[in-house]
Amino acid sequence: MFTAGVYAQDVLERVEAYLRPDFQVVIDGENVRMDSPVLVYNDTSYLPLKEISQRLGASVYWKSETKQIYINTRVNTEQRQEDPNPTYETIELNNPYSAMVSYLGAEYPVLVTSNIKSGSYGRYYRESDVKRMGVDTKGLAKAKERLTNEVFVHENELAKRWKQTPTQTYAAGYEAYVIADELHPKKIDILRSHIKGMERLTYGDVEYSSKPIIVQKVPDKENAYDLLYLETVRMLNVYVNSSSRYKIARLVISQDIFKSDSYVVNNQNTTDLELEAQKREHPESK
């Protein structure tokens, strides 16, 4: 399930194995259809590590620099099932930020926020990020973030499940936001350059400033990314008159038509999260 490349001959050994798409896999009494067939070598069956681990509630992380595979198992197989009609606390983004955190030896991108409501303290982690870390969130109290409509879990709740507290890591050339799941150096550079150009724009007497929060690859879309950012609009001829909104910009990378080895970034569309929240809250309004 990982692209490992080719290394020195004294490390590798060529073997003869067989793919068996006719083998069936049954997990917890349920027949499952695997994306990759079973491999048979020396009368032993081998299953795709990443896929079978995820089906068992674990996460798998491949670190190419050290040639290590990290497997984080689910915490408690006996914990109660998720409520089919859960009740969520409602929170709203407040000073959100993204970071790379180290958990059980591997690094993961996370989106973290506090709650804009008074009286709420501590950090909320986005549920999809902690699940990716292998933390099972079933049975924990959760919150629905009003603007993004995503589920978050408070750090006090997560402390009941994670095996160690994640620690924030800082790589060389650290930026104030994370570009998640993109490894291509040229694409990362062109994305950062484009986002840098969005930081301050002026049209007439109006100034637009943008604070990037996190960039994520769009699933199943090649070279497409969603940038979550806070946009502040200020009237230059007025002493105090500014407003801020959280937005998501869809960024698309394409090859430069003038240089085959270069890329360009275009803003495909922008979503105002406050307007989207109002549509969900008042679907009868046009």
From TrEMBL:
Taxonomy, superkingdom: Bacteria
Domain annotation Copper amine oxidase-like N-terminal: ranges: 26-71
Database matches in InterPro entries: Cu_amine_oxidase-like_N, Mao_N_sf
Annotated Pfam families: Cu_amine_oxidN1
Name of this chain's protein: Stalk domain-containing protein
